[in-house]
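Memo to structure team: turn this sequence into structure tokens by end of day. - J.P.
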Amino acid sequence: MRIGELASRTGVSVRSLRYYEEQGLLASTRSASGQRHYTDDEVERVAFIQRLYAAGLSSRTIAELLPCTDSPSRENSDAAMERMAQERDRLSAHIGDLIRTRDALDGLMVTNRAHREQLRVPLAG
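Reply from structure team:
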């Protein structure tokens, strides 16, 4: 199938499919006129790549995980699991940072509300 049909079948833009190919996540064969051609297997691969992106993974990380599906083995599976654990730890740390930032903002909002309340109280005179 050509790139437009793959895009249609997967719901992914042609531009994204070209990007996936650039990043080594997807492969095609080329016709004599240079058009990309894909097999039906690529529909499932694109869906898998989309799930990995939805999990917050970068194209570099996805490329590190693909050997697990391209060449299944205990070693590749273990490497993929370790890489996903690293990404999970990174996300957890980022979530912790975001929670601390939100808590700091909450503190500033409490201070601001208290200040606003003081401005509403008429000064004794």
